[in-house]
Model the fold of this input.
Amino acid sequence: MNMQKWLKRFSFASMYGMFLILVMGALVTKTESGRGCGDDWPLCNGKFVPAYTIESFIEYSHRFVTGIVGIILLVNLILVFVYGKRKDAKWFVGGAMFFTILQAILGAMAVIWPQSSATLALHFGISLVAFAFTLLLALVYTRFGTMLSREGTPLTSGIRSAIWLISIYCYIVVYLGAFVRHTNSGGGCYGWPLCNGQVIPELTGATLIVFIHRLGAALLLVFIIWFYLVVRRSMQTQNNVFQAAKWSLILVVLQILSGGYVTLSYGYDWYLLASMLHTILISALFGVLSYLCVLALQSKRTIG
Done:
């Protein structure tokens, strides 16, 4: 087996592992298992093998998986820098390692020192960026890792700007969603799509937090629909940008529907499953938007 196959295998292993970390982190939050190991880190309640409580098992499993994935990513980093030929792969693996270490440090700090909900919400956002870097790294070794297809149209400055603005705005919406989780505000709006039976509810407390997140998600849908229509008019269907725009639209619609599912399942047994689905979809959407950002950078170099 040549080294390029090993690079591809470790890159995909890093991506799958980082995705698992992201989902497990959301599980820790949803089950309120963040204090399952007390104030100890990296041990769990002073033990290497923790007591078999549900909270400690969930929290310690998350730590264990993070450690294993960290080792895989480190091996991947060495392989890419020693044997890799593409500069973008080195940027992606370096970014993945940086944000993985950063999210691990923030996770440890959250255990040892109590953090505000605003700070805890940032932890998910950083994990999401780390996953996006591993996704981009894995795509390097697929057909999507090439630059814009030959049949495609170089991106205008307006489209490139739109890609970056939508991606940044999506990250803000993601942060708001994480803030809803960490403030336990999910019950602030009963019913969907209306909030407590009103188009504009009483904007106080948890209701205000959830309503802002819903409004942000609705605007994100509008922006992505507009972007898709612009791209469809100017590019061929086989173009990577068009395909990414199409999947962005599909995923944002599914994400909003899953948000409604989360609300309607509040208080039922399937609430946790709905929440995990919501996390999976937003991770996929942010990954696709990150890929669009890379295409925008490549297009700028090509025509600039």
